[in-house]
Amino acid sequence: MPTPLFIAQIGLTLFVFVMLLSSAAGMVYVERKVAALLQQRIGPYLVGPKGLLQPLADIIKLMFKEELRPSAADAFLFALAPIISATCAFAAFAVVPFGGDTTLLGLIPGGLRLQVADVNVAILVVFAIASMSVYGIVLAGWSSNSKYSLLGGLRSSAQMISYELSYGLALAGVLLVGNSLSLTDIVNRQAGTWLGFIPHWFVVVQPIGFLIYMTAGIAETNRAPFDFPEAEQELVAGYHTEYSSMSFAMFFLAEYVNMVTVSAVATDLFLGGWHGPFLSESIGWIWFLLKVAAILFFYVWMRWTLPRYRYDQLMRFGWKILLPLAVVNLLVTAAGVLYFGS
Amino acid sequence: MQGWLSILIMIALGAGFALISVLLSNVLGPQKPTPEKEAPYECGMPPVGDARERQSVKFYLVAMIFLLFDIEVAFLYPWAMALRDLGWTGFLQVVLFMALLLTGYVYVWRKGALDWGNEKT
User: Fold this and answer.
1) Of A44-48, A74-78, A190-194, B103-107, which range is least confident?
2) Preferred mutation among A327, A329, A333, A342 to probe B, highest tally of B CBs within 10 A
3) Is A195 exposed, middle or buried, given 0-12, 13-18 or 19+ CB atoms closer than 10 A?
4) For residue A334, which residues of chain B lie inside 8 Å, CB to CB?
5) Interface contact A95, partner B, CB < 8 A
6) Nearest to A175 among B40, B42, B77 (CB)
7) For the stretch A251-263, what's the b/e string if a residue is b when 16 or more beta carbons lie within 10 angstroms of its beta carbon?
8) By the 8 A CB rule, do A246 and A67 touch?
9) Taking chain B (121 residues) in consecutive chunks of 10 residues, what is each chunk's mean pLDDT?
10) ipTM score for this prediction
11) Best mutation target, A125, A184, A338, A339, to test chain B (most B CBs within 10 A)
12) Which DSSP string do the residues of A5-34 spell out, in sequence order?
């Protein structure tokens, strides 16, 4: 017997899925418009009002393009890689809460939490799926049997695993302060303010952790200035050089959905999630959306402002600066938690 | 259990969407393969040799070092959850654990396993 809560949960899952898809499409548009803004161009403006239908036009165009595959490629893995990438991107968002309990205008007795999957080890799931997504890229690079793809895939895997350590350690710092593996609990510990005006966000007590998390997150999602897997000037298009049509679109979809997930997790862990002034908790998801949008804008801003690093600089920074910094941050946090006992 | 079911639904939705859109483009798009189209892209030049050649051992080294440190991070998660019960004893134990790792870290650093190329900048 499906209860109203169960139906609402299924509905919410579908809703989040569609929203993720549209956020990826929206990000393509925002990326191009912001790039145009920063370079004093107009950007897309022909398709739809102010070019708003541009992502749709792109998808339709890609849909009708020929699906190419190098004859020497490994057919099965070549087809599998984009699907793995896209699946991992969607799965990671499933555990991210994006709002407090809601009764959906009184339709659901007891309230529904705005989160696809309420599991008590959400942070571990995010960490695990972030590690999985490297498979899509490595398999794409290897199966293409193209030199550019292979180099892109190798570089990418080395980069992602190097920065994953700092990513994981930054998460552990928040675990210490929040004392929970559940993202919902961590967000709820960030409600309220100190002295009436400083929000009780973990970015205040974990500023270095936040910086490490964002740096590693940008490297994990392969965005500029760490976009080595697809460094156009060196590797053509990196791991997806040989991909065309919708398989190519899947990699792009995965990249944008991953960006949204990293921003959403950053909001939950460091920026207080749906807690903020002026709005009650039932419509707190507005705050959540605003914070995620701000981080996403920052992502795009970074890409069109900073030049790409050199590969040896990237590896040195990850292993010799970020990793020790993350360990020290974790130990200092642990000592602080024990000393102040909060 | 409902939480995990929802994750599975999400995975199925993601995989299903990816599969269907790729299949759809296979149906909708033209299929006119030529030997040139099926060759790997090498900037218009005829491809030289196979792509699966020997690669720099650096990548292998990084993967090995990653395994060690990633297990360390995995150990730290339960420790972080239990720190309030363990108190300063637990803290000192992890400091000792970190010191042991640090020895290995200094070793790979001095051996040059973390250097990529010869640049001194």
Assistant:
1) A190-194
2) A327
3) exposed
4) 80, 83, 91, 94
5) yes
6) B77
7) bbbbbbbbbbbbb
8) yes
9) 75 88 84 78 74 75 84 84 83 89 87 69 46
10) 0.81
11) A338
12) HHHHHHHHHHHHHHHHHHHHHHHHHHHHHH
Residues of A in contact with B51 (CB under 8 A): 72, 144-147, 149-150
Q: CA A269, A101, A195: angle at the middle one, nearest 5?
A: 50
CB-CB under 8 Å, A91 with B10 = yes
Q: Which of A67, A93, A338 sits opposite B25 (nearest CB)?
A: A67
User: Domain locations in chain A?
Assistant: 4-340
Whose structure tokens read 């030199």?
Answer: A147
Out of A164, A242, A249, the one facing B70 most closely (by C-beta) is: A164
SS3 assignment for B51-118: CCCCCCHHHHHHHHHHHHHHHHHHHHHHHHHHHHHHHHHHHHHHHHHHHHHHHHHHHHHHCCCCCCCC
Closest CA to A239 of B39, B51, B29, B37: B51
At A339, list the tokens. 């000393």
Provide the pLDDT for residue A1. 46
The total number of residues shown for chain B amounts to: 121
Q: What is the DSSP letter of A190?
A: T
> In whole angstroms, what separates CA A249 from the centre of its chain?
17
CB contact at 8 A, A262 and A90:
no
Name the band, by pLDDT with cuts 50, 70 and 90, for residue A108: low
The token duo for B116 is: 């990529």
- A97, A272 Cβ separation under 8 angstroms: no
Three-class secondary structure of residue A145 per DSSP: coil
| A239: nearest CA partner in chain B | B41
Query: Which domains are seen in chain B, by residue range?
Result: 2-110 (1.20.58.1610)
| B107–chain A nearest CA distance, Å | 13
- What is the nearest CA distance from B38 to chain A, expressed in angstroms? 4
